[in-house]
Amino acid sequence: MHHDMIQDLAEVLITEEAIAHRVRELGAEISRDYCGKELVLAGVLRGALFFLADLARAISIPLAIDFISISSYGPTTKASGVVGIRKDLDESIGGRDLLVIEDIVDTGLTLSYLLKIFRVRQPSSLQVCTFLDRKVRRIIDLPLAYRGFEIPEKFVVGYGLDYDQRYRNLPCIGILKPEVMGR
């Protein structure tokens, strides 16, 4: 399983077991913090899909799930800085507790844009839960209520994160071999 893709990795940064353990911890924390509230998880497509699915199952309180899709990266590994909404939330978030689920927070530019959009809609609370935090690249400092793992300044794939739409379905987080990124 995943054999060919695993061979393309120079290194496994975060194992499948470590991910499962951390997601359970985050689920318990969120369940405690949002007990009695009207929780809406807003996943940022496509990267946050795997994290959101596992996290939602680890949360023991009622919740709604929604998705927003933005365009910012394009086919390269460098963010273009240009952001637009491809698919907006379907749920009304006014007066509800919105928890934005991100795969990775990098420069903070995309997330900052998203939070501005959501604030206008007047949720009763607005917080962020990111699977990965690459703090070293931060341009806009944003408060992150929940964080899975902090990672170094390396390009990573797996568990929802892709290179050219590939490797999302790897169960771990890894760093690709340089020769793989060139082909």
- How large, in whole angstroms, is the Cα Rg? 16 Å
CATH topology: Rossmann fold
Termini separation comes to 22 Å
The number of distinct β-strands equals 9
Helix content estimate: 25-40%
Question: Per DSSP, what share of the residues sits in E-state strands of 2 or more residues?
Answer: 25-35%
Total count of domains: 1
Class of secondary structure makeup: alpha/beta
Shape: globular
Poorly predicted tracts of residues: none
The CATH first-level class comes to Alpha Beta
Strand order within the widest beta sheet: 4-3-2-5-6-7
Strand and helix order:
HEHEHEEEHEEEEH
Integer average pLDDT: 92
Describe what this molecule looks like in 3D.
27% of the residues lie in helices and 30% in strands. The longest helix is centred in the first third of the chain and has 18 residues, at 16-33. The mean pLDDT is 92. It has one domain (17-151): Rossmann fold, CATH 3.40.50. Strand 2, helix 3 and strand 3 (63-71) form a beta-alpha-beta unit. The strands form 2 sheets. Strands 4-3-2-5-6-7 form a 6-stranded mixed beta sheet, with helices on both faces. It has a 3-stranded antiparallel beta sheet with strand order 1-9-8. With 183 residues, it is an alpha/beta fold.
Q: How would you summarize this macromolecular structure in one to three sentences?
A:
27% of the residues lie in helices and 30% in strands. With 183 residues, the chain is of the alpha/beta class.
